[in-house]
Specification:
With 140 residues, the chain is an alpha+beta fold. Helices cover 32% and strands 11% of the residues. The chain is elongated. It starts with 8 loop residues before the first strand and ends in an 11-residue tail after the last helix.
């Protein structure tokens, strides 16, 4: 059982059996502690975004991921895609839709639905869960 500290961020958890040598087992896991802003972003994304950005259907929510025209939408954890984009571009996509930055016209605009605080919280959430982890914009 692991309980993360009260400081939001990405943690690497290492567990090792007490045996040494050939019988030893070591497991490494990345765990994420979300702060208030990231938790708000997660709530907003689950309400408005996961239907297209999460390929997994659940009894509560049917995924539309496979029904969208190519290219398929990225997942919110797709650091390879999202880490190349600035926070400003992500905010613009969420607020004004994909065409605002030359992305898919299937991405709707949420400026009239979400507050700027909610939009920024979604960006913070995407940064927190990015895999590979977000280290700053590398593509611009």
């Amino acid at each position: 059982v692991v309980q993360l500290g009260g400081i939001p961020g990405s943690y690497q958890v290492l567990a090792e059996t007490p045996k040494s040598g050939a019988g030893a087992v070591m497991v490494t896991s990345r765990e994420i502690a979300l702060g208030y802003q990231e938790k708000l972003g997660k709530e907003v994304s689950e309400k408005y975004c996961t239907v297209c950005h999460d390929p997994e259907s659940t009894p509560e929510r049917v995924s539309n991921f496979d029904n969208l025209a190519p290219p398929p939408p990225h997942q919110f954890t797709d650091g390879n895609t999202l880490n190349q984009m600035s926070d400003g571009d992500l905010i613009k996509i969420i607020a004004d839709g994909g065409p605002a930055v030359g992305k898919s016209p299937q991405t709707p605009a949420y400026r009239g639905t979400l507050t700027m605080a909610e939009i920024k919280a979604m960006v913070a959430y995407m940064r927190a869960v990015a895999d590979p982890p977000y280290l700053g914009v590398t593509g611009k």
